[in-house]
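pls design
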């Protein structure tokens, strides 16, 4: 039986000088470089997409600092293991616990770990795919420097693998073109790239890797965003902003990624939210069409629904835009939340009972008696000159405002 040790473990860098990419974290004046230069350790949080080298970075720093360390899997390792690691830290100088998936650390384990971080007995290198400002205990987060790792470029991965192949650390007979095809297929996920190389090394030993062989291995599409991580919400955000910004090419690009993910509920919510928030009164008919469109997409299902989504996205991009509705309600909510709740004018209070007149509920002018519009006060006295709605004069909204203006200017 051959050694089944994963290739990723065999070629993992042991020093930061061998880490692929992440140049923004490894400059001469970076925190990591200065820590190693002065042989001084501080607690860190490594944040970024899956498979881009967070744990590798943490281990390489420990090696360069020549300090004892251990990995703690926050989601599955026990409290007893954490206590054992803390005891080891008490006996060692500058001990580091590498906390994998720190966002999965439950309250019991946090309560055990936090006092030792506060006292400087334990240093932590935390790794997470989730935004640490949302998922990491604030008490732990405040004692750490947050370092965001960037997805590796195809060139970063190509140069790293090319070097390992040249030095025979990876025994693989492959052309530069096919190697670049591999590194371009995984959208910055180095772990996925290494897994592909691992398969080629072990299942096609001593063979010249051809396009036909590679096509067998690259049957799966790699989409970096997951349904639950930050990358997914970043993708939805980019899609929404492209719709708002009237860029149909960008919108279609991000839409294609969302379609491959298959999270149609999130896509539906974003389309409806966008059309009402950013198109709104400039094209109110489109708001209705988008609702009908997402219903139609649900009925026909994938893959036929892709055309429906594409048409909706392009039409939103091409439509005139108005955010007057959302800006109006935001301002009104701001006033309400700040205590600006005043008495309703008497003439628009309920007067559908006989004694209402005795309470002063009178004087209301019925607009239909005046041709559809009559000027009168509706806001409380304290707010009577307040303007929540501002006419942006875009698309249909301009016509609607012209209709109101035509009445208000009549004598």
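designed seq:
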């Amino acid at each position: 039986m051959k050694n089944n040790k994963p290739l990723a473990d065999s070629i993992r860098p042991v020093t930061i000088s061998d880490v692929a990419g992440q140049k923004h974290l490894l400059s001469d004046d970076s925190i990591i470089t200065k820590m190693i230069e002065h042989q001084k350790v501080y607690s860190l949080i490594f944040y970024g997409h899956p498979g881009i080298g967070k744990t590798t970075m943490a281990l390489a720093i420990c090696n360069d600092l020549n300090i004892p360390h251990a990995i703690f899997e926050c989601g599955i390792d026990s409290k007893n293991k954490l206590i054992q690691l803390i005891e080891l830290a008490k006996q060692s100088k500058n001990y580091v616990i590498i906390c994998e998936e720190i966002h999965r650390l439950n309250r019991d384990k946090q309560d055990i770990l936090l006092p030792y971080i506060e006292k400087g007995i334990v240093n932590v290198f935390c790794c997470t795919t989730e935004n640490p400002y949302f998922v990491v205990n604030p008490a732990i987060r405040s004692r750490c420097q947050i370092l965001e790792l960037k997805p590796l470029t195809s060139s970063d991965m190509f140069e790293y693998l090319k070097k390992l192949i040249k030095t025979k650390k990876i025994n693989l007979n492959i052309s530069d073109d096919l190697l670049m095809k591999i590194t371009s297929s995984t959208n910055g996920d180095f772990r996925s790239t290494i897994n592909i190389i691992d398969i080629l090394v072990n299942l096609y030993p001593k063979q010249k890797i051809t396009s036909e062989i590679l096509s067998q291995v690259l049957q799966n599409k790699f989409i970096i965003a997951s349904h639950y991580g930050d990358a997914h919400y970043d993708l939805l955000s980019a899609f929404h902003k492209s719709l708002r910004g009237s860029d149909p090419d960008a919108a279609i690009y991000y839409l294609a990624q969302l379609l491959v993910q298959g999270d149609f509920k999130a896509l539906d919510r974003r389309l409806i939210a966008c059309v009402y928030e950013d198109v709104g009164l400039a094209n109110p008919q489109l708001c209705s069409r988008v609702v009908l469109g997402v219903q139609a997409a649900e009925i026909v299902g994938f893959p036929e629904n892709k055309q429906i989504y594409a048409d909706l996205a392009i039409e939103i991009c091409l439509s005139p835009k108005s955010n007057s509705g959302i800006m109006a309600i935001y301002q009104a909510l701001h006033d309400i939340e700040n205590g600006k709740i005043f008495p309703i004018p008497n003439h628009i209070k309920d007067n559908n009972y006989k004694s209402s007149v005795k309470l002063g509920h009178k004087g209301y002018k019925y607009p239909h008696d005046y041709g559809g519009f009559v000027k009168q006060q509706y806001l409380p006295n304290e707010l009577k000159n307040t303007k929540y709605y501002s006419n942006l004069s875009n698309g249909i909204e301009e016509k609607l405002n012209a209709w109101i203006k035509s009445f208000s200017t009549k004598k």
